[in-house]
Amino acid sequence: FRLLAQTDKDTCSNFSCCSTDLTPSGVMISHVHIKNEWMISYRFMNMYMSDLASGTNLENKEDVFVNYLMVPEKMSMQMHMLMAMYGITNRLTAMAMLNYQMNSMDMSMYTMNHTHGNTTMGSPNHSMKTNGLGDTKLHVLYGIVQKNTCQLLISLGASIPTGTIQLKGASDDPMYPNTHYPYGMQLGSGTIDLLPGISYLYQRNQLAMSGSISGTYRAGYNSYGYKLGNEATVNSWLSYQWLNFISSSLRLEGNYSGAIEGHDPALYYYTEPSTNPANYGGKRINAYVGSSIHFKKCLRNNRLGIEYGMPLFQDLNGIQLKQKYVLNASWSFTF
Fold it and tell me: Each residue of 262-298: pLDDT tens digit?
């Protein structure tokens, strides 16, 4: 990326003036852009979950069936995102993100063997799939400190509820006939959410290090009488440029998410764990390893990145599927 505007002999308006942008693929905010500079990117995220847990302990399906009619077996969440950043001034950058989501969950249903009175749990025999436009996010970034080797910026954003919270099962759905799907299968929050953040980045020669704190504050309840939990995320990463065209990164991410407050009156708490608002949120620590290819001649100013993450620690609220891995991939172009 071209991220430099020289404001005087000793100071750069953007710190990444002497080397390539080394930000990992899964990090959205790390720097501001110079005046009139654009950055367009496409990003893909795939998250896979399986195995029931409560707190830090695994849950037995037979025990979950004591209170619920169904138990989840696995879930996949995919997201395609288009992001644009524009340098309004050398310190102020605007950013917009649009995303398309695809969610899938497989479940086992409670059945009774009438001859012997035993509960039968075979292979997953019910599935839900939803897809569509998610919530739109708008940010402004401001560089408080901008020097040759470091940058401190603050960001403030808003999440606009363009993702629907009205998805329902088909008329022949055995569990959700013309009824709202659970909270986690909807595509948005239904509320306008505030997205504050602060980030520090140090880069010298081939080495870059960063730390950031960001959050999501739900300003109110949506039209169905609930709101998703507030969130706080801490990110720390280290990246090194091994060759002129390739870099590698390590990243630690800690996330706290609160349980859902209120409830959708169309959902019965004990249909399955994901219809219970208490079974959302928790604490997670993930570790990521990634790599990026930086094009210098052909496709100049383009960058391809990939990042793979696995959880180191999970403490979940109520009964949920454990996160197994996260895959991030990105393509970006600066002009």
Answer: 999 999 999 999 999 999 999 999 999 999 999 877 7
For residue 318, which of 39, 53, 50, 119 has the smallest C-alpha distance? Answer: 53
For the record, the structure tokens of 162 come out as 């363009």
SS (H, E, C) the chain: CCCCCECCCCCECCCCCCCCCCCCCCCCCCCCCCCCCEEEEEEEEEEEEEEEEEECEECCHHHHCCCCCEEEEEEEEEEEEEEEEEECCCCEEEEEEEEEEEEEEEEEECEEECCCCEEECCCCCEEEEEEEECCEEEEEEEEEEECCCEEEEEEEEEEECCCCCCCEECCCCCCCECCECCHHHCCCCCCCEEEEEEEEEEEECCEEEEEEEEEEEECCCCCCCEECCCEEEEEEEEEEEEECCEEEEEEEEEEEECCCEECCCCCCCCCCHHHCCCCCCEEEEEEEEEEEEECCCCCCCEEEEEEEEEEEEEEEEEEEEEEEEEEEEEEEEEC
pLDDT score, position 7: 37
Mean per-residue pLDDT, 73-80: 97
Structure-token match 């280290």, residue found: 238
Q: How far is it, in rounded angstroms, from Cα 286 to Cα 52?
A: 18
Model pTM? 0.89
Tracing tokens 């100013």 back to the chain, one arrives at 301
Report d(CA 36, CA 26) in Å as an integer: 25
For the chain, the average pLDDT equals 90
- Note the pLDDT tens digit of each residue in 158-191: 999 999 999 999 998 888 999 999 999 999 999 9
